[in-house]
Amino acid sequence: MSEQKQPKPPSKSRKILLAIAMVVVLGVFPAISWIYLKNGLEWRKDALAELGSFGQIRGAYIIYPDGTKENQLAESVCVIHNFGADPDLTEENKQILDTNKRLYDQFGKMSDGTPRPFFKIVMVYEGGTAEFRSEIQKIPSIDYATWVQTGGLGSWGTILNNGYEKFVLDRKAKEHKRVYALADATGQIRCFYNALDEKQVERMVQQIAIMLPVK
User: Fold this and answer.
1) Is 145 exposed, middle or buried (0-12, 13-18, 19+ CB in 10 A)?
2) How many CB atoms lie within 10 A of CB 198?
3) Pair 70, 76: CB distance under 8 Å
4) Residues 6 or more apart from 197 whose CB is under 8 A from it?
5) How many domains does the structure of the chain reveal?
6) 48-76 pLDDT, tens per residue?
7) Which residues of 164-191 are buried (b: 16+ CB within 10 A; e: fewer)?
8) What DSSP string runs through 175-213?
9) What is the DSSP code (8-state) at residue 27?
10) Cβ pair 119, 108 in contact under 8 A
11) Are residues 129 and 159 in the same domain?
12) pLDDT digits over 99-149, tens only?
């Protein structure tokens, strides 16, 4: 009967490598996870701290043939831009429309392709040149559940201008001509952003993600 060989004990170098691996698994990985978690919590806290209260938006109603009305903005997180009266397809307006399309691509649809509930891109304007209206008409009609076009420049202008004036005073912020307003699901305007500044648009995107319901 042959003698069974006993396994060799691990070498000193192997023991050292195993010890290092245990230190990494038990010490370094949890520390890294905690750093990411801590940074994430601090980022969320900072983002929420930037949100304030700058007025209440109005509704945007659909009137059905039977006379009943539906507020398209009810219970929705809304990104709002006021293009004003008779807008043209200027470079600035084209940039804002392109940003709106990017916002729609990111937030407008669920994973199955259906419109995301409780998120609206609101474009306030009246009239407009043929070029501007043609650009608007490129939006597929199926997506209108997310895209809201509305007039009422008088009331919208007052609401947005008063809110932005308060925002600039409260934050001691530099005033910009082209801005986005971000309203929460209660209709409260929470923040304003320079619509032509990519960094501010990115911050708006982060805060939209925080405000949207999980489902």
Assistant:
1) middle
2) 10
3) no
4) 176
5) 2
6) 788 999 999 999 998 999 999 999 999 99
7) bebbbeeeeeeebebbbbbbbbebbbbb
8) P-SSEEEEE-TTSBEEEEEETT-HHHHHHHHHHHHHHS-
9) I
10) yes
11) yes
12) 999 999 999 888 887 888 899 999 999 999 999 999 998 887 656 789 999
Handedness of CA 51, 52, 54, 58 (dihedral sign): positive
Q: How many CB atoms lie within 10 A of CB 51?
A: 16
CATH number for 162: 3.40.30.10
Q: Encoding tokens for residue 157? A: 């202008």
Give me 184's structure tokens. 């929460």
Range of the domain at 26: 12-49
Do the domain assignments include residue 7?
no
The structure tokens 């043609």 sit at 134
4 domain-assigned: no
The residues with which 80 forms a beta bridge, in sequence order, are 122, 181
